[in-house]
């Protein structure tokens, strides 16, 4: 299937494509392994979380991973962490929400597609009203991918946290709507919060460089198997779980 240009005015064709897109799993495994060697994340789990996550993955149930967002290096350090965690077995079947501008440059798009990217047209970039229809379609596509057995990784803060890396910023309701819609498709997802820390930042408005992102601390929380029924309540739970994960990552950096 021809890959359409990722533009807001072309969003119907874009989401038709990403409903079916499947990256080459062997290339994805190779790419994630290279990133793991480059970034060498230090991965930790709260008590019982690793065993619970392994069991959850074996069960075949869809999972939504909520991850804090600190820099433009995050997609690469998260991929490196996936390689060094039980998520390795799911590489090739994890979708990752990524802002649409990452799909403009052909070489950059190749990398994002390899990592399972699904474009997001953000209101802050295009205007809330302009992206409403595309946003609804994006959430439907994510729910359908979960129902088909994929996992989904989301940075629910929506943009890099340049305020306080130790405090989760407001979480939009989008992640709640995706989980809610997946449940309506008889595929209620579990939730796993994953947090990263790149260490103390003297100026949080200055992102860590790629070199400073090496050896980041990642902490996995225990899976949450029963989510609230309302999207807003799911989003509140996501923020609570993610803050607990961030607290652990900062404390153990």
From TrEMBL:
<feature type="domain" description="Phospholipid/glycerol acyltransferase">
    <location>
        <begin position="63"/>
        <end position="199"/>
    </location>
</feature>
<keyword id="KW-0012">Acyltransferase</keyword>
<protein>
    <recommendedName>
        <fullName>Phospholipid/glycerol acyltransferase domain-containing protein</fullName>
    </recommendedName>
</protein>
<dbReference type="InterPro" id="IPR002123">
    <property type="entry name" value="Plipid/glycerol_acylTrfase"/>
</dbReference>
<dbReference type="Pfam" id="PF01553">
    <property type="entry name" value="Acyltransferase"/>
</dbReference>
<keyword id="KW-0808">Transferase</keyword>
């Amino acid at each position: 299937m021809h890959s359409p240009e990722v533009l807001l005015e072309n969003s119907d064709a874009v989401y038709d494509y990403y409903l079916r897109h499947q990256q080459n799993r062997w290339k994805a495994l190779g790419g994630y392994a290279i990133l793991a060697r480059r970034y060498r994340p230090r991965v930790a789990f709260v008590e019982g979380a690793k065993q619970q996550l392994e069991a959850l993955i074996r069960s075949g149930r869809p999972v939504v991973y909520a991850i804090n967002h600190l820099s433009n290096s995050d997609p690469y350090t998260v991929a490196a962490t996936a390689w060094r965690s039980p998520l390795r077995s799911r590489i090739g079947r994890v979708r990752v929400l990524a802002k649409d501008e990452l799909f403009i440059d052909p070489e950059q798009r190749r990398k994002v597609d390899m990592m399972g990217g699904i474009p997001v047209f953000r209101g802050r970039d295009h205007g809330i009203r302009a992206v409403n229809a595309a946003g609804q379609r994006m959430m439907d596509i994510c729910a359908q991918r979960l129902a088909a057995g994929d996992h989904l990784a989301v940075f629910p803060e929506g943009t890099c946290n340049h305020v306080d890396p130790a405090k989760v910023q407001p979480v939009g309701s989008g992640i709640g709507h995706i989980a809610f819609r997946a449940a309506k498709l008889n595929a209620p997802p579990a939730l796993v919060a994953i947090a990263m820390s790149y260490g103390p930042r003297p100026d949080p408005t200055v992102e860590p460089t790629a070199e400073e992102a090496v050896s980041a601390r990642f902490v996995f929380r225990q899976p949450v198997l029963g989510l609230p029924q309302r999207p807003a309540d799911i989003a509140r739970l996501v923020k609570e779980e993610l803050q607990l994960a961030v607290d652990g990552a900062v404390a153990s950096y």
